[in-house]
Amino acid sequence: MGAAPRSFCFCVLLCASFIFSALAQDVNQFIYHGFNEDAQLQRDGLASVHSNGLLQLTNTVSPQQEGHAFYRLPIKFNTSSSESLSFSSNFVFAIVPELLSFSGQGMAFVISPSKDLGKAEASPSEYLGLFNASNNGQSTNHILAIELDTVQNLDFDDIDDNHVGIDVNSLISHESAPAAYFSDREGMNKTLELIIGDPIQIWISYDGAEKLLNVTLAPMSIPKPTKPLLSRAINLSHILLETMYVGFSASTGSLKSSHYVLGWSFNRSGPALNLDISSLPRLPHLPRPRAKANDKPQLKLVISVSLIAILVVLITIGAAVYIVRNKRYEEVYEDWEREYGPQRFTYKDLYKATKGFKDKDVIGRGGFGKVYRGVLASNVQIAVKKVSHDSKQGIKEFVAELVSMGRLRHRNLVKLRGYCRRKGEFLLVYDYMPNGSLDKILHTNIKPCLNWYQRFRIIRGVASGLLYLHEDWEQVVLHRDIKPANVLLDADLNGKLGDFGLARLYDHDTIPQTTKLVGTFGYMDPELMRTGKASTSTDVYAFGVFMLEVASGRRPVEQQGSMETVNLVDWVCDYWKKGAILDASDSRLEGTYEEKQMELVLKLGLFCSHPKPEARPNMRQVMQYLDGDATLPDIPPDSTVIAPFSASNDAFSGNSSATMSTIDSILTVGR
Fold this sequence. Notes:
Family: In the C-terminal section; belongs to the protein kinase superfamily. Ser/Thr protein kinase family. In the N-terminal section; belongs to the leguminous lectin family.
Shape: elongated
Membrane topology: Single-pass type I membrane protein
InterPro entries: ConA-like_dom_sf, Kinase-like_dom_sf, L-type_Lectin-RKs, Legume_lectin_dom, Prot_kinase_dom, Protein_kinase_ATP_BS, Ser/Thr_kinase_AS
Keywords: ATP-binding, Cell membrane, Glycoprotein, Kinase, Lectin, Membrane, Nucleotide-binding, Receptor, Serine/threonine-protein kinase, Signal, Transferase, Transmembrane, Transmembrane helix
Number of domains: 4
Number of strands: 29
Strand content: 15-25%
Number of helices: 12
CATH topology of the largest domain: Jelly Rolls
Largest sheet: 8 strands, antiparallel
EC number: 2.7.11.1
Radius of gyration: 33 Å
């Protein structure tokens, strides 16, 4: 066949390819066998489209530049709906370097909330046109990228200079692997050189039901292998917004490479259509870098000059990097803290222990800050809580109390190892509890749920720890925030009371001066909310609500209907009045519990959460009841003692000496 007929056939095939692409596209699914100027692509930077349909993101002429190409229409991922968040993509790419074995950075498949990364001041070179020095690693980026990286950057923990990585909001990959593909014929992985200049096919798929992201590579001529290169369990529902854009990003550095995309298929709700390899445009006939003998002197000269230039740049920015890193570890330290010795941690040690306080290492969140998991250089696992503190007033006294609480020693208290201070925040260092908080286990559908034996042991353990704080230590410690979220479980599901961020100390036989209203709604003593004055009785009230919550599996305040709320104390009290207090037990226990223990815990919880502080037992009496050293009186359902438990009942608002006498006689049993 002559040249003219061949050209005519090629044009026909190319046109047919574009027509097929246009017909196959919809809002959430499309396929391109080559591209043209009318394709639904938004390009910026160095990105261009060749006459044969080849998409070129960068070139070997422009150093320190970037190129982007995004599908112009937004894709609705609908992460807030019940629909499973799933998608898949298939594309063919090629990377042709300027010099043999030396590449100008890499490229990435990107899902981003914006298709204008260039306008967002994304940087070229090692940032791949995705991020810059200030926003790299920020959770607000909401960017997922599959990087095809050809330069090893130690600042981003790159494993080598020829790898594939899964990036979420940062160029420090969640998971990465050297570029390779699984040979089904040989039953083994075979290395793929990304910068060899030959087309490579890649498949990316995410199963929202399984929360599994797979990435598979292979030479263009080989069908999709049965085993992916990367398979990562990851929940993207918090990363991808409802409306996102899909596309590509690439960059050059001091050295340059041409990054090409030959064809692309994408599907938001199912498997992407397979690319017809025979319909893809061909790469231009560029001279491929080869290792010829007469090239070596010139290559050595170029490399030498480049290395010298790089060395000068590194020396120039070395001082700046040193300053920035020191700034990263900057902390507040005053002379009076020297006496605290090992209880004062350095911020640098905590930063390294938590690998930079990354969101992926957050194990808890609260109104006072985030809690991060970390491992010290001594291989001890810790939990580090960041607490905001904007005022210098009383700082010395506050630190002194923290250090004092670091001396607390009890098997049912989470050990406070020490602290660190930075401008505007405290960092509190605790022992790490592998089973997390009681709140998480108690109020989620984790199966199996805690059995009654485990729950009663946790209740008794927390009571023992609280008795130690109130009576058995050298000072009285008011915890002031007792709730399941602050009870952590060790490897054996033993309960340990933690989070002493709100705790205050005072000497025995003195009246505490704490008047600041703090705590958590639902666990706060009504008397505290009225007067603002905290005492050991305040902790007893919160512990009473805690007991009821553990026994019933219900939160202290729950919404019932659109307007009505149900108070847990009132709810349990109603069952007691009906003579059916065991019906308040957690239905998930399916009646498998010791009835006397369950009745004791529910009634004792009501006594502890009595609205009148003087009617509540102290923690030593509580331990006597729980250990069976004292017997809780059997109160009839219609007793007037029950009435005051209801927050809506005003029968106890007066000074009824008869009622007070009855309650006092009950609570003094076993003293």
